[in-house]
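note to self — DONT lose this again. spent like an hour looking for the file last time. sequence + predicted structure for the chain T wanted, 122 res
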Amino acid sequence: MSVDGSTDMVNQQLRDQLVIVMNRIQELEARDRQRQNGHNVGQQPANANGNTIKAAKPPMYSGDIGTDVEAWLFQVGQYAYVTNIPEAHRTKWAATYLTGKAATWWRAHSSATSTWRLWCTG
């Protein structure tokens, strides 16, 4: 085998290895882009507030004796903020989490408590 033939063979092997390395780099870059977009890492894409937290939905509220309405309003407010529920829709949305006595109260007062701030202050 001549020197030129040997050089050609080495050059071809280097080209083949370079193709393998370049393909692997592209795979790693694609995986990195997915992670940055919140995929494959248990996150959701950022909402309008810039949050990437996955909020737990608030519990239902019954209004029974011993239940803490202030804690429930706080949880509902936090969820609404994190998930970017517009303030204009929060009252009607939060009312869907009322059951029992609280739902009965809402039915009687829904027209009087039309804003979120008024709803939270009573």
